[in-house]
Specification:
Nonspecific Lipid-transfer Protein, Chain A, 2 domains, 10 helices
């Protein structure tokens, strides 16, 4: 997907969310989402705040300030981000009150205006978890947020349904950055574990890679014929993303037949599918 299509997708997804919530009953904003600690309104506030943070970061990058702003020199861990998000977005949602959807719409209109007029997508912009990234990569992150949280809003407390089809295809290659964002180091393993992913979609988009976990670190690499994976996961793009982003448990997806898993007979206990959710537990 080229950058023009990505920008159009950001506009369409944010517009869909705003329209759906504007047309819904007023108490919808107080209803449950698939984010266990947030109601629907808080998810919307999180997305709206993200649009402003991206716009500010890109403007700073365009002015040659692609490094951390004062006070953000030390990047937070995945757990610190999760803890901060759990409280700050609730506060924002409460502060905005009845202006929530107006602020959501305004923030994404301002972001779209910036993206439509942007020219150099290689400019470095600061992101508090990833450090300095390109403006293009920042658009990928915005798509990631919109696709996953759109599902959170639509699925509600039931946690059912599918990802936006176009959004899932766009997110598939960008999902590799998620490993970096949410990795939680643990004790070093006596020998690394190799997980292989073979992911497809109805429109022909595919993703294959190996994730080599050493416990306290990991490496994401191309599949190698010389490497025998300890465990191989095959899934469609939507279910892979929902599992990777910790919306559906890997083993639940396996039991329901939405993913298939194969492993060598000598695979040891810590290679179990459930450990993927521990090492890469979401934000």
């Amino acid at each position: 997907m080229d950058i023009a299509a990505k920008v159009a997708l950001v506009k369409r997804l944010s517009g869909d969310i705003h329209r759906r919530l504007s047309e819904a009953a007023p108490d919808t904003l107080n209803g449950p989402s698939a984010c266990s600690e947030w109601d629907v309104g808080t998810v919307a506030a999180h997305l709206a705040g993200g649009a402003t943070r991206q716009r500010d970061a890109m403007l700073r990058g365009r002015d040659g300030q692609g490094g951390p702003p004062p006070g953000e020199e030390n990047r937070p861990s995945a757990d610190q981000v999760q803890q901060s998000n759990a409280t700050s977005n609730v506060q924002t949602r409460n502060e905005w009150g009845d202006s929530l959807l107006d602020n959501f719409d305004q923030n994404y209109r301002e972001l779209d205006d910036l993206l439509q007029g942007w020219s150099d997508w290689s400019i470095g912009c600061w992101h508090r978890r990833r450090g300095t990234i390109s403006a293009d990569s920042y658009v990928d992150l915005r798509i990631q947020e919109l696709v996953i949280h759109d599902w959170d809003i639509r699925s509600g407390g039931a946690g059912t349904g599918d990802l936006d089809p176009e959004g899932a295809v766009a997110l598939l290659p960008a999902s590799e950055m998620w490993y970096q964002l949410c990795f939680r180091p643990a004790a070093p393993l006596s020998s690394p574990v190799a997980y292989r992913f073979d992911i497809g979609s109805s429109n022909g988009a595919t993703l294959q890679h190996d994730v080599i976990v050493a416990g306290d670190s990991y490496e994401l690499t191309e599949c190698s014929a010389d490497r025998r994976p300890d465990l191989t996961v095959r899934a469609d793009a939507g279910m892979y993303l929902l599992c990777l982003y910790n919306r559906v448990d890997w083993n639940v997806a396996k039991r329901s037949g939405r993913i298939s898993v194969s492993q060598s007979p000598e695979t040891i206990a810590h290679v179990a599918l459930r450990n993927l959710g521990r090492w890469f537990g979401g934000l």
